């Protein structure tokens, strides 16, 4: 039988290894867009948390004897220490009991309201003098029931009373400075009975009230800025602070904490977290929902389809081909084409599917008359560098299969040697 194709006489040159196909800058940037958007959302959430938290935290505890910042009280504590007063810090009522002696002044500053009325009543049995800075309603009810809060005051005032510390100060400036973080608006009081009101402004509102409770001296100071580092140097603020806090040999600087807060039941999540946590959690939830909708691939109700689902082989083949094309996996696609072609060629020449590529090439070359090196190059060694070369490889494999099928099952019948009637 005459061969359909002329045999190859020269073996094709060995091709170079195909270089790795690197993704382009545009493709890399397109893949990075979701991460850039998520990073921008994270930055927005962080900035929102800072804004909800007041733009930043106060450096150190306000009016702390160890805080050198503008809102601290380290300056007046050091001056008292230089004048022979032993300054001890306390964060709980038990620490106050341990630090206090027979001749003790206790300064109490509790802007968070951690100490309840029973705690204030216990102070009267510990200290000789109690100085309450910006006291709340519980403190007034426990230690000065004849004194009432009279609102904020924003003006300087002279002593106007016979209290020695007030007379030495002359006049004070209770207003906080603009750059002092942690300082609240200065408060004032209205005193009745035997209480002594000092530094009264218009309307009878006093910045300092002195009274007694169960034989103990109680001083009520309406402004913490008088004792803070940034306000102690104004007018007679320093003289007033030294006079109120330096009457006894020991000063216990008491800032009540969470351990002094009364326990009335199991704490809930809201009481254990800062106030800005809930808005941030809500914002994160909204961001998550927006990202889920943005990245979602399917909108509306899901399509109900009865199982089992029959998928045609052609759809699977086309889908896999599109995946190979999208990822530029030409060598992977070529290998898939070769594997299928080798299996079909083995069946055409009567070899099992487990036959090696060399055995299939020998059989195909023998039956078609083609050059064995050329068949091996097509089945094993050709590496397509572009889509055009991949299509050419596919066409070559298809042509080789057609030639092998024609050679194995010729269309023209052979002569049988019998006499035709």
UniProtKB/TrEMBL annotation:
Q: Does the keyword Membrane apply?
A: yes
Question: Which residue ranges run through the membrane?
Answer: 32-52, 276-294
Keywords from UniProt, A to Z, are: Membrane, Transmembrane, Transmembrane helix
Q: Which InterPro entries match?
A: DUF4350
Q: Where is the DUF4350 domain?
A: 66-245
Q: Where is this region: Disordered?
A: 1-24, 166-188, 402-421
Signal peptide span? none
> From which domain of life does this come?
Bacteria
Protein name, entry field: DUF4350 domain-containing protein
């Amino acid at each position: 039988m005459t061969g359909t194709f002329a045999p190859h006489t020269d073996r094709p040159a060995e091709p170079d290894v195909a270089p790795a196909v690197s993704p382009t800058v545009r493709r890399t940037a397109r893949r990075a867009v979701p991460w850039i958007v998520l990073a921008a959302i994270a930055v927005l959430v962080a900035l929102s948390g800072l804004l909800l938290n007041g733009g930043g935290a106060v450096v150190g505890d306000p009016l702390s004897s160890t805080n050198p910042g503008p809102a601290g009280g380290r300056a007046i504590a050091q001056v008292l220490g230089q004048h022979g007063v032993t300054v001890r810090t306390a964060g709980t009522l038990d620490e106050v009991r341990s630090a206090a002696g027979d001749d003790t002044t206790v300064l109490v500053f509790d802007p968070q309201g951690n100490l309840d009325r029973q705690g204030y009543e216990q102070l009267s049995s510990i200290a000789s003098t109690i100085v309450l800075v910006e006291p709340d309603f519980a403190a007034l009810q426990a230690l000065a029931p004849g004194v009432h809060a009279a609102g904020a005051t924003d003006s300087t005032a002279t002593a106007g009373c016979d209290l020695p510390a007030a007379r030495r100060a002359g006049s004070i400036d209770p207003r906080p400075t603009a750059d002092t973080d942690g300082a609240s608006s200065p408060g004032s009081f209205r005193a009745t009975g035997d209480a002594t009101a000092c530094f009264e402004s218009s309307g009878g509102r006093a910045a300092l009230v002195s009274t007694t409770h169960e034989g103990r001296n109680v001083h009520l100071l309406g402004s913490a800025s008088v004792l803070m580092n940034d306000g102690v140097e104004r007018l007679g603020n320093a003289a007033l602070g030294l006079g109120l806090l330096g009457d006894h040999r020991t000063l216990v600087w008491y800032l009540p904490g969470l351990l002094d807060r009364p326990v009335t039941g199991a704490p809930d999540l809201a009481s254990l977290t800062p106030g800005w946590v809930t808005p941030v959690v809500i914002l994160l939830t909204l961001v998550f929902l927006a990202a889920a909708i943005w990245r979602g691939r399917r909108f509306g109700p899901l399509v109900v389809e009865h199982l089992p689902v029959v998928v045609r082989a052609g759809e699977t083949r086309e889908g896999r081909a599109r995946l190979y094309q999208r990822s530029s996996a030409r060598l992977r696609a070529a290998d898939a084409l070769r594997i299928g072609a080798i299996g079909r060629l083995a069946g055409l020449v009567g070899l099992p599917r487990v036959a090696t590529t060399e055995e299939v090439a020998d059989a195909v070359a023998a039956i078609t008359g083609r050059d064995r090196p050329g068949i091996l190059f097509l089945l094993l060694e050709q590496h397509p560098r572009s889509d055009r070369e991949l299509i050419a490889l596919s066409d070559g494999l298809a042509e080789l299969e057609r030639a092998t099928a024609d050679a194995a099952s010729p269309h023209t019948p052979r002569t049988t040697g019998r006499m035709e009637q």
